Amino acid sequence: MSVLKHLKHLGLSYNHIGDEGMKAFALSLSMGALNNLRHVDLRWSLIGDEGVKAFYEALSMRDLHSPSICIAPLYRQFA
Predict the structure, then answer these.
(1) Which residues contact 5 (CB under 8 A, 6 or more apart)?
(2) What is the value of pTM for the model shown?
(3) Cβ distance 28 to 40 under 8 Å?
(4) Helices 18-30 and 49-60, interaxial angle, to 10°?
(5) pLDDT tens, 43-63?
(6) Please, are residues 47 and 16 in contact by the beta-carbon 8 Å criterion?
(7) N or C, which terminus of the chain has less Cβ within 10 Å?
(8) pLDDT at residue 41 is higher than 80
C-alpha cells in the first residue's frame, strides 16, 4: 500500500460498494490505511445504515487534528 500513501482524493461514486464493501474499506481506514486521504466521494454507492455506521466508527478512530475526510453527499437507493 506504500504506493497509495500520498492519496488525498478518492472517487468511489457509482461503484455500488454497498454495506459489505464499506465495512471492508472502514476496516482498512481504522487500521491506518490512507492516512493522507482528505476527500472521499461516495455518491450513489448504495451504502446503507450499516456501512455508514462502520465508516463513521473508522473515522472516529483516526487522529483528526484538522478535518481529514470530507464526505460528498451520500444518496441511497430506496426500493
Answers:
(1) 34, 35, 36
(2) 0.75
(3) no
(4) 10
(5) 778 888 899 899 889 888 876
(6) no
(7) C
(8) yes
